[in-house]
Each structure stands twice: as C-alpha cells, then as structure tokens.
Amino acid sequence: MKINNQVIWITGASSGLGRAMALEFARRGGIVALSARKMDLLEEVVQEIQGAGGKAKAYFCDVLDVQSIASCVEQVIGDFGQIDVAIANAGFGVIGKMEDLTAEDWSRQLAVNVTGLAMTCKYALPHLRKTKGRLALIGSVAAFVPNPGISAYGASKAAVQNIGESLLVELAGTGVSCTTIHPGFVESNIARVDNSGRFHPDRPDPRPANLMWPAEKAAKVMVNAILKRKKIVVFTGHGKVAVFLGKYFPGIMRKLVSKMTPK
C-alpha cells in the first residue's frame, strides 16, 4: 500500500523497531518525522532515507518531558502542516525481581512506557482528527503472560493494551483508527538499555536468538497493520502461542514460564 506524501511521526525512531518502521514507511512514499533523544542516530536514519530518495526529518523528543512532546508535535506541524500517522513507539524495559526493584525503577518504567505513550497520543490526536489519520501504540506479548524478572515492563505493556482498548471506544466515529501492536521477540536494543535508561552496546541480549525476528520483517507486519487500520495485532508465531496460552490456559503458561526461568 502506497502512502505518498502522508506524514508519519514516530517516537523512539533512532533504533530497533522505530528505525525499521521509519525506513519501511519511507520506502512506501511517506514523509517520516523521526523523533528520539539521540539526534546523531536519528540523523543517520534520515540520511539513509534521503539517500534512497525518500523524505525525512529528525526531531528531538524526550517522552519523559511533556513539553518536549508538545514541542516536537508543534515542530512537525510547522514543517509539514499535518500528521497522518502517529506511532507511540518509545519505550524501554526495567529488569529485576519484585524484591529488587526500587520505587524509582517503577516510576521510570511507567513514566516512559505509559505516561510518555499517553502524552504522545494526547498531543497527536487533535491533528489526527483533522486528517482522519492512524494512531499506533507499540505494546508487547509481555502484556499477556507472566513476566518473572521483568514484571515492571510487563505491567507497563498491559497498560498499553488497556489504553488501546479505551481509545477504540473514545475514537469510534471520528475517522481516527487506533492499532495496538504486540510484538514477540524482535531484534532491538531494548536488552542493552539499563534500568536508568542508559545504553550499553556490549550488554548481552538474553532473549532466545532462534525465536528472534529481524526488525525489518517485523516492520513490514506493523506498517501493514497500521495502514489497514487493524485494531490489535500480535506476532511472532511464538508470540501468538504465548498469548493464546496466557489467555485460555494460564496454569499451563505459568508452568512453562517457571521451567524456563533461572532459579
């Protein structure tokens, strides 16, 4: 599906799924407004898009700062006049068992993954109403299954699922669609970001490599879902199985997770 000259705003677009979606939208003819904290990485993505003949611009945005979000939206509107697609993708994962996590760990996790996402929606929606556009929220399969060692992350993504469900009702009849996307294991830098949000390039990724989708493959699925205005999307194949078991056979799911969890 071509989207010539539609304006797509993506948070957390400097790496991983955000970067991959930016490249995919640009390939389909979209004008991509990329935002994140790391401007140097954003500019690399912009150069890659422009080098392939696409249109893109980088914007600083820290979703921990409401004024930063509002300012970013104002700049995008000032440059392009509209937003047709807004993707609340920025996020990270706090790691640690319940007894080890601090109040600060929980506060930062929810501030980025929940409040930051909600404020992204808040400031994008007035412009999406004008274009009858598309809103997308990036959740996780972790929203539906037990998450020993990453319970804060799982809780934040469960909140994303509920926000998405609520928006489907709030936006009914407005022409604005809301797509909540729950990926399974996908190549990204999320495991290399510590509980304070600092990036460690040499930090190992504990997720099973044999179950990992390339970000480019995931981006195609996600972009298609957004453009088709789907309501809820779950992938990968293993992710779908996990969600099914978590919903219909929670006892079995808990036993499976327990067996896979280091004691």
UniProtKB/TrEMBL annotation:
SMART domains (UniProt xref): PKS_KR
UniProt keyword annotations, A-Z: Oxidoreductase
Domain Ketoreductase: 6-189
One CC-aspect GO term: membrane
InterPro entries assigned: KR_dom (IPR057326), NAD(P)-bd_dom_sf (IPR036291), SDR_fam (IPR002347)
Pfam families noted in UniProt: adh_short
Entry keyword annotation includes Kinase: no
Record SUPFAM superfamilies: NAD(P)-binding Rossmann-fold domains (SSF51735)
An example molecular function term from Gene Ontology annotations: oxidoreductase activity
Family: Belongs to the short-chain dehydrogenases/reductases (SDR) family.
Protein name per its UniProtKB record: Short-subunit dehydrogenase
